[in-house]
Amino acid sequence: xxxxxxxxxxxxxxxxxxxxxxxxxxxxxxxxxxxxxxxxxxxxxxxxxxxxxxxxxxxxxxxxxxxxxxxxxxxxxxxxxxxxxxxxxxxxxxxxxxxxxxxxxxxxxxxxxxxxxxxxxxxxxxxxxxxxxxxxxxxxxxxxxxxxxxxxxxxxxxxxxxxxxxxxxxxxxxxxxxxxxxxxxxxxxxxxxxxxxxxxxxxxxxxxxxxxxxxxxxxxxxxxxxxxxxxxxxxxxxxxxxxxxxxxxxxxxxxxxxxxxxxxxxxxxxxxxxxxxxxxxxxxxxxxxxxxxxxxxxxxxxxxxxxxxxxxxxxxxxxxxxxxxxxxxxxxxxxxxxxxxxxxxxxxxxxxxxxxxxxxxxxxxxxxxxxxxxxxxxxxxxxxxxxxxxxxxxxxxxxxxxxxxxxxxxxxxxxxxxxxxxxxxxxxxxxxxxxxxxxxxxxxxxxxxxxxxxxxxxxxxxxxxxxxxxxxxxxxxxxxxxxxxxxxxxxxxxxxxxxxxxxxxxxxxxxxxxxxxxxxxxxxxxxxxxxx
Amino acid sequence: xxxxxxxxxxxxxxxxxxxxxxxxxxxxxxxxxxxxxxxxxxxxxxxxxxxxxxxxxxxxxxxxxxxxxxxxxxxxxxxxxxxxxxxxxxxxxxxxxxxxxxxxxxxxxxxxxxxxxxxxxxxxxxxxxxxxxxxxxxxxxxxxxxxxxxxxxxxxxxxxxxxxxxxxxxxxxxxxxxxxxxxxxxxxxxxxxxxxxxxxxxxxxxxxxxxxxxxxxxxxxxxxxxxxxxxxxxxxxxxxxxxxxxxxxxxxxxxxxxxxxxxxxxxxxxxxxxxxxxxxxxxxxxxxxxxxxxxxxxxxxxxxxxxxxxxxxxx
Lengths: 532, 315
Hints:
The complex is a heterodimer. Chain A is an alpha/beta fold. Chain A is 34% helix and 26% strand. Chain A is built from 18 helices and 22 strands. Chain A has a six-stranded mixed β-sheet with strand order 6-7-8-3-9-10, sandwiched between helices. In chain A, a hairpin with a 2-residue loop joins strand 1 and strand 2. Chain A is globular and about 70 Å long. The model of chain A has no long low-confidence stretch (mean pLDDT 89). In chain B, helix 7 packs across helix 8 and helix 8 crosses helix 10. The radius of gyration of chain B is 24 Å and the shape is globular. Chains A and B meet through helix 2, helix 3 and helix 5 of A and helix 9, helix 10 and helix 14 of B.
């Protein structure tokens, strides 16, 4: 008998159909991955199993756990099952733990709430599971608070809470999406090990097909609330039946062809740049301490070149970006754009500033919702001495919107009328409108679905052709950097540890850190080349 | 934690020193000479000079500032110009009414607001929530002296459970004292409770949508258990801020209520001193209130740290 059996599950929220006739089974010891783009209903499926859907949800069909139908259980019965028979791990380790309670209390709570043990054995069990997930109590005592741990360590605590009572079924909703690649690899290994050891079923929700291919025994692909295809991993990768599945995999490994970089004339020169942040003093009379976020970084970006910058969170990528944009002053070293310093005296140099624009990660938060698109994309005009007015202004707006694949009519709309991908196109239009010499893309495609990401990458390649773009592309996603840049810098703890032609660095990495990064990144199997 | 407390304490002392300079300067530049006010317009110049010297108004500004601050540190607030009694004695008498009244009102307001706020948040959008929200809307909109008059009408005049006004003094014992402060405390507490309940509700609603609340539910906690174990303590941080502000307000801002119930409190003292240009009394009471406000803020800062471990380690 299957451990979890979902049959014809439909779910509506305030009448809107969110899940349509979903079928899914998980056996003990099996890893089933549910994948799809945002809005596909994969997380809602997980919440339906937990019986924790949003307010106003109504469900139809059956969800059987070990033969018992969960949809007919009362809330009290479900409380007894949650945490004991079904554990769940969430996406955001930074916010999934209560900040005012110790990790020991939070892990013990799972045990105590189900009255599985008394206090002393519960404490021993909490220590045991925390040790099992890689947080031994000599280094990570139960009295630690969440803010004293890193993102990966917090995710381990969340996993410890979920497995403290050895549930039969573990649900993990994007458990590694917020983590760095090396941490991701460790957490995925941990989950795989736990499934084997406890003979649990694992329902893994993820948008990352490389993770799916690497990890799952079974794959279920969802789109707009429906299962479009499912099957054993190898079989499904070998012969995908549904065009959507094929499209997803193709988009995930999407490659673009960039035009040859034109000249080799330096545009951006970064020389021995150091950026220190002040830390609070240890004692009242002690000298203030410093954290060196960027440590003697030097590189040159030539005109017409596409340069990548990769590294894990906290490596100094964002600090370096801010320094290049002239948003923060550096402590030593120099940053020149076209031979001119970005900082003169203690002020940003505006003459240089108007030659640079930036596209940020979050397509939802980086626009003022009360302005129309025309006003949003012409914001950089304030950097110009004589900004275009009247019909010239209208023409520039229309030209840019067409260039990024939207229509001139979109100028009068508000930002909430656009999807995430369209917003990112508008962000690119905003950056391009004053024809900057250099564009910085700060994780510009990281928040997008794979199919949208593929379109934006295509757009960038087209724009490179049309406008001879020079850009610095900052990302943690190695596969994207691989296809969209000519040269790459690898950054670790504030230093550039390796740089070179992108292809060369990715195929024959020299520095041990680059090797670790590339080895840890889950790889998408090439389509059709998977042995059946 | 100790370092955090020490840092807050230093900031408290700095604030107090700055406040004393500002208060002194403001009172100095205020027009009007207390001596000529006391003696009337026909006073002789030498009589005025004698009185100024007696009141300590003839030294240099610097000298008078240090005399004033130095005196306060040893509990000598000077002598009232109008009553010719030590200010410290006058303040002490009034403090015995105002401080218990403020604490009493704050306690009532918290006792009403916490359950109401938590209840409303737990039943968001349901009739219970709407009822609480409606009642708090009313509590904020209606001025407290109206509550005071209604309370007098119902509980003093009709039911005769309480006196309509006056304070029996603590000499009669604690219970009779509290008894005579009950109606004013309730009148003061109701509007404050309405504000506090709304803050508690919205803080809890913010917390309820946090990821860790979902984690708690996934562990098997019921909605109510999650609310109590994980919600309330996190919601306390904004609530503590409001409680600190309310205490400061209750200590000095109860002039109208003191007037309605004929209580000899600090509010009335300041009011009378300002009308009589009794600057030394005004100065001293204002300084004392500043001291109270800053001290309460200090205590609120310490309470933050007790609630939130992130503050303890950051310092």
